[in-house]
Amino acid sequence: MAPATITEFHEAQSADDRAICDSLRSAIDRGLPEAESKIWHRHPVWFLNGNPTVGYSKLKSCIRLMFWSGADFDEPSLKAGTGKFKDASIRYTHVDQIEDDDLARWLDKSRTIQWDYKNVSKREGRLERID
Q1: Which CATH number describes the domain made up of 6-115?
Q2: Which of 9, 27, 48, 113 could form a disulfide bond with 3, CB atoms 3.0-4.6 angstroms apart?
């Protein structure tokens, strides 16, 4: 069954993955206190003004932290996705890999560098930058 809450998502993870998720959640909540957080498409996601901004998911061998507009952050540690979207992500296999200063900087950038994913379906898949 799909998790209904972020806490349920975390409880479904192994101890190592749960530690990563707990650390990420804490940092995101501190860095984006104005964001709304919820389970969206089965994963924890934070929204600013209804726009998905940051979230994480469980992959087979890691936890992937993704920023929806991260491709424009100019951060070498974040790997841009493929396709027409502007996402970028980093993968963690151990909580010690999380660099607090990097994560705080990325969260700051996620507030000011945003593409409008909230309205992408209204624009038939075309993204526009939010000023």
Answers
A1: 3.90.1150.200
A2: 9
